[in-house]
Design a protein that fits this description.
The chain is of the alpha+beta class.
Length: 755
Amino acid sequence: MSLSKGIRYFVSSEPISAQKLKDIAGFNLKSSPQEIFSIGYSKNYVLTHIPLEFSGKGEELFYLTLDFPSIDRIEFRIFDSATGQPTYHTITGDSFPFAQRPIASEVFVFPIKKPAEVTNLDIVLVTQSTGSHKLPFLLETPEVFQARISGKYFIWGIFIGLIFTFFLVSLVFFIFTRNLAILFFVLYTFSLIWVFLSGFGLGFRYIFQDYVILQNNLFIIISSSSVCFKIFFYIHFLKCKSFFPRYFNYLIFIVFLFVVSTIGYLITGVTEFYTIVLLLGPITILSLIILSTRSLKYNHHARYFLLAEVILFIGVLISMLTMIGIIPHNNITYQIFLWTVGLELFILSIAIGRLIYSIRLEKEAAEAGSFAKGIFLSTMSHEIRTPLSGVLGFLELLETTELDDTQKEYVKIARSSGKSLLHLINDILDFSKIEAGKLELHPEKVPILDLVQESCKSIIPMVKKKGIFLDIKNDDIPHFFYVDVERLKQVLINLLGNAVKFTEKGSVTLSIEFRELKLDEGVFSFRVIDTGIGIKADEISRLFKVFTQAESGARRRYEGTGLGLAITESLVKGMGGSMKVESKYGKGSVFSFDITTNFWRIDESSNDSHENMKSYISDDSIHKKEGITPSAIHKIIIADDDTSNLFIAKKMVEKILPGVQIWEAKNGIEVLNILRKESIQLILMDVQMPEMDGLEATKKIRNSHNPMMQNIPIIGLSANAYQEEVDLALSSGMNDYITKPIEKEKLRRILDSYK
């Protein structure tokens, strides 16, 4: 039995009443050349007449399938051709609950029971749809219907499973890379799953059976969303905003049209909005093809995008041609569209895989560059600090000689300039660590007031010189807290130093407040308040950017690299806090931050006292290792391959320990030779020396069979200020570590601890 020979239809803009249906001959019916025809997207009513002629006279059961899941309303009637009397009537469609369908199926299936002795039946349908009015009819036995549906489910399962696989893989990629382009691909694939679940009718059958409005609106929502996600995926992957700003604006406008048209259709139900959404689909594909073509010279991954969109455009074009009847609707054309979508996702997944590989290579290159930069900075730091330590050392020695007032002023200025250069080197090293993510914090239990006093000591000369007032305010704060001593001091010194630097008159105040959270944890609030020049509102946002200052340009009054506040903010973040700035231009500024940490009070620590803990605060350049009980110092070895630094260290030791005997060494081998002949009480050992460096020499001394040599205090000297180098020196067996340039008072304190 062939339907194509008998299907006739009539399109009406007015509803077709049941009374009119009795007189089929009254309609000017057109013959359909095949089992499917489409009138596009309209709200018109379509009357379809299908005459059936049976050869057998017994009872028979057939299924008439309207194999399209998106028809709003279907009125289905069966008439006895001989008598003209209706034998079956039902109303269904996707605007009715799923339970109202004659046969539970994602498409519309109507049972046709041919009574005995009846040879002719007339099937009449009146359909209405605001979407695609496509009517593909199939007449088949229940057995054939079940076999065909099983084959469809198999294909759908493979197809949706494939998309779900792409979704999971891209989700894993996003979790590991946090790449925004991949996130939009994840959203694109996820929305496509729902597009096809809804488009196949599976969503209505298995999920939204009682939610008709949601099911009807879901398809257009997720279809629009999927295209928008895809546009943003292309924009970010191909860096459209950077390379093609005008084209970027055009694509954003397309997204805007999608959003407006979708919302317009949902609110008003006007078919034209739906039509705009559908037309924007192929327009978007063509736009992305153009974008991919233009991106070929900038991004070698663009070839994947170009291929994917060309393939998808072919599938969409075939699908559109089948909808309007130019190409027949059959299993081949149906599957071509499905697998062009699948192939598009497969190609785009390859592009993402290539992106991940590129990101990995870039990361490895960046890590290699960071490692090389670290080695370079470490080497340059050592090479710069070594002659600088000589300059500062000789200046310090020069200050102890007889000088007139002019000469003393010159020496003072030279030392100040040298210290500024040293501070700059330290800032660059800190910034490089922060940038490489290698800045580590070492929190310990420390007395708060001692730490604050030590921080203030370094800026007192600036305060005295400017004639301003420095005040410390604290209100019922605990005696001890758990922080990284050196880093918190660095933060306070930077903030206090900046406050003094930009304050010409008035005062600088360090205020410390405490708020208890629970038994042993609380929030310490630090505020540095000044009455200085203040900061303009539009300049505050630039304060914490590297190499910038609030006052910039050739005419700025205050010198500096602009690294200080950037480093300070990073240190505060590392301690779990955040920087805040309040300022009124011309009246002053307030820099504040909070630290949440453990605390102790004296009455809660039976073995601790404030006085006993004062000695805990060590100098910035001295890292003490506990457990050494040295004897009196009469004989010292100073090992350094730099003649200037060796001379300076020798003169400083002679002034600190008058009458001490000093042996000089240029490398570790000479140190070992001296130890075999002399009873030495202490060694000042440069870490980096030719032939045998200080680390190797220290290990040999510690592994010696001579107990006297094993217990000799060894003080490491180095121009390298990296914490890794400090840890390496201490782990080799050195007892202490002093960074160059050596200052006499620092050296005095450490030598005094070994007398």
